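Entry 14. Structure prediction run on the chain below.
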Amino acid sequence: MIRKLRLKFILTIMVIVLVLLGLMLGLVLVFTRAQIERDNIQMMREIALRPRTPALPADSSDMNLPFFRITVSKEGEILSCVGGYYDLSDEELLYGLIEAADSGEGETGTIDSYHLRYLRHERPSENVYVFSDITSEMRAMKGLITSCVLIGLAGLGLFLVVSILLSGWAVRPVAQAWEQQKQFVADASHELKTPLTVILTNAELLQNGGYGEAEHARFASSIQTMGQQMRGLIEEMLMLTRADDTAQTKTFQRVDWSNAVNDSIMLFEAVFFEKGLTLQPEIENGIFVRGDGTKLRQMVEILLDNAQKYCRENAVTTVRLSRKGRFALLEVSDEGEEISAEDLKKIFRRFYRVDKARSMNHSYGLGLAIAERIVTAHKGKIWAESRNGVNSFYVQLPCEAN
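Output returned:
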């Protein structure tokens, strides 16, 4: 898929470049040819208007094209032939050129068989014909066409290299998203495979008549437990999807961040108390941020839930919220097993768990990924640190003016 996308990107760029180069070089050829022809005709017209001196005018173009002028009476008799570049002794040729010029529709035209351009000027008593050799003009245009083709090919080659490099840069986010999607599907399938296998196995055992009521009750309990685990996993995946959509909805409002954090702490006080843990808040009042209050509270609850799952027995979890310049800094610290530097780099990945055994305790490795998506959607930053037996998660959000 990514390879086809890159190929389409390159082809699109090359088609656009080809059209633009063709258009620009074509316009150069057309305007250059028109300008040469216009200068040549202007020169011929000035020569035709000079009664006795058919030399090139001093203020004309720098092009010195060979020419000759024939003056013909109204009866068709050649009165004079002027032009040192040509042999004008062949009257049959001269009459043939005059006839060819008279057969043309306009005042000017070309005689292709002789590579001549003519200009016909009528006077009361005579007609003047000026002929100009366009061989050099044709040669110049041929050289210009060759140059344009070479420039076009060189330009296409250069843009091909540039488009290949740009395609890799442009498609990289798509490739990363595609890889993340494939990894997400693989991880979700792996997480669902185990409970689904347990459910199917216990359902088969339930259908077997060789077991008593106690065993049937145990089988049914296992099915219910695995079903709840699957439901929890699916709900968290849906939460992750909604977190990804937060940045797109842009329904942000002014949020009292201090009150929102306090509300989340109150929800978890009973949970910490039942487990013999201490929840210690240190919240600075009057801190406001712009965002989705529901999503921000959900992010705080994820961090608190993560703390109560992974902290030591009888440990203290500290929640601090303070203003740091233009930002609000939230810190959730708990006393627990130290997290390695390698795990700190991966801890916000989907389905990543430091303790693999936690999967049976409604921990699917999605909570921190959801929290990261929420923080990113609010143009903030989230990170984790672990030192001296204390694991700390930090969330930095831009402050709103009071």
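Residues 53-64, 356-361 have pLDDT under 50 and may be disordered.
Filed with the rest of this week's runs.
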